[in-house]
Design a protein that fits this description.
Layout lengths: L13 E7 L5 H6 L4 H14 L4 E6 L3 E7 L6 H8 L3 H12 L11 E4 L1 H11 L11 H15 L5 H20 L9 H12 L7 E5 L3 H11 L5 E5 L3 H9 L4 E3 L5 H6 L2 E4 L10 H10 L5 E5 L16 E5 H7 L1 H6 L1 H52 L5 H27 L7 H11 L13
Parallel strand pairs: 5-6, 5-8, 6-7, 8-9, 9-10
Antiparallel strand pairs: 1-3, 1-4, 2-3
């Protein structure tokens, strides 16, 4: 990993760095996209340098996010690993892994720390941060990201609890609110877009390229419009045959798509190809053979299946995932009430998880705080007693008890408040402030300053 300079801010217990359809153009999202095997490789490479850091990589067509949890327990080796986590390091890793210059990420990434990481993940998993509000595919994508990290042994107690709670909260949102009412997925919006172009479909030929989850969803919605003919093509003929059989579709040879591209009125693509399948050069010849009949193409893949230049060809109307965002604006407005209800549910889940996380971290800090303060009290008491030799044993004992009571009473209220289940402040930040103010993370914490 290239050594980039980092800032000097303290390491975070939870940290996430990402980019999505709102912050980064499609061209950049293509360059930092991960497939499943790349996620596994990236987790292994990242943890080779930081084996104690919990790590999950969430990669979809609209976002890439790297989640990290610093190890707890106060062990020196683990504390050293935690100190190396920073937003700069995560961005540098993302750039290095994909072989791009770090400067290309400037202005396109976002960061979340500590409790904000929990809030963000819960919103993402529940589709509140999706291009299409209420879409359910993100739930399975988060679950897959979590499972890949588990298989890579990159998840510990914090992320086991956090991601399982996020999945449970998302299911509750979809079951108890109308957020998912109507057709709400990237696939359904893609078909809605096609429907806005044509008045009728009984005389249209549809070519579907791909047989994954997104392609299967597009086929389902497209079949409901009863087009004249649907042709399915995929690298795996077996997978193409499986989804085609559900709707009595024809099957095309993936290596011989050109005749079907000439015939089609609508082309839907959603493969996992790392390179464009349909280039401008290839499609230029197809367009001539079509006698310049209109062709609508919807590409939901990231990286893209269809080169951007194809959209500049005569009578070709190309839409990609970023174009779909314009279609869903009205859908978002209609779901305002459902969003509010969803936020209330997520806030409850967030409070409960943050309390669990805070209680998990507070114990060692409270213990260290009491030991630190009582050590100072003991040192000061011994100096006082040494300067007052005339005190009787009973008086010495009484002074000792008084010092102990004063320290305990001074600490009782802040410690009780910090541990309270209904505390709404940033508990993780307060714990860090306490460690800093009392020098609890300092090797010389037990040595009072003179």
């Amino acid at each position: 990993m290239t050594d980039h300079s980092h800032n000097n801010r303290p390491a975070d217990d939870l940290l996430m760095v990402g980019l999505n359809h709102r912050t980064a153009p499609l061209e950049l999202r293509e360059r930092v996209a991960f497939n499943s095997s790349q996620v596994t490789e990236a987790l292994a490479r990242f943890r080779a340098g930081l084996p104690d850091v919990e790590t999950v990589i969430l990669a979809t067509c609209n976002r890439v996010e790297l989640y990290c949890a610093a190890p707890g327990g106060g062990e020196p080796a683990k504390a050293s690993s935690a100190a190396l986590i920073s937003a700069d390091r995560l961005k540098a890793f993302l750039a290095d892994f994909h072989g791009i210059d770090l400067s290309q990420l400037d202005g396109h990434t976002y960061e979340r720390r500590d409790e904000a990481v929990v809030r963000h993940l819960f919103a993402v998993t529940s589709s509140l941060d999706s291009m299409v509000l209420g879409e359910t595919q993100i739930l399975s994508q988060v679950k897959q990201a979590y499972q890949l990290a588990v298989q890579a042994s990159a998840v510990g107690p914090v992320f086991h609890a956090m991601f399982q709670r996020a999945l449970a909260a998302a299911k509750e949102v979809h079951e108890q609110t109308d957020l998912a009412g109507g057709r709400v997925s990237v696939a359904s919006v893609a078909v809605d877009l096609v429907q806005s172009v044509f008045d009728r479909f009984d005389n249209k030929v549809v070519l579907l390229i791909g047989a994954g989850k997104m392609a299967a969803l597009m086929l389902r919605y497209m079949a409901a419009l009863k087009p004249g003919k649907i042709v399915v093509a995929n690298r795996s003929a077996e997978k193409a045959a499986t989804i085609a059989a559900q709707y009595n579709c024809a099957i095309a040879n993936f290596s011989q798509l050109d005749p079907h591209l000439v015939e089609a009125d609508i082309v839907l693509t959603g493969t996992g190809s790392a390179e464009p399948l349909l280039t401008a050069e290839r499609m230029r010849g197809i367009v001539r053979q079509r006698s310049y009949r209109p062709l609508v193409m919807v590409d939901v893949a990231v990286p893209r299946d269809v080169e951007g230049g194809v959209g500049k060809l005569s009578n070709v109307y190309l839409y990609n995932v970023d174009d779909l965002e314009k279609v869903v604006t009205q859908t978002h407005a209609r779901r305002t009430q459902a969003v509010d209800q969803s936020m209330q549910l997520l806030q409850r889940h967030e409070r409960e998880f943050v309390h669990w996380l805070g209680a998990r971290n507070i114990g060692p800090v409270v213990k260290a705080l009491y030991q630190h303060c009582h050590h100072i009290g003991h040192v000061e008491l011994q100096e006082l007693l040494a300067a007052q030799p005339e005190l009787t044993p009973e008086q010495r004992q009484a002074v000792g008890k008084m010092v102990h009571r004063v320290i305990s009473k001074l600490l009782h209220h802040p410690v009780t408040q910090l541990s309270a289940p209904d505390m709404t402040a940033d508990r993780v930040t307060l714990v860090k402030v306490m460690e800093h103010l009392f020098k609890l993370d300092d090797a010389g914490a037990d040595k009072p300053e003179r």
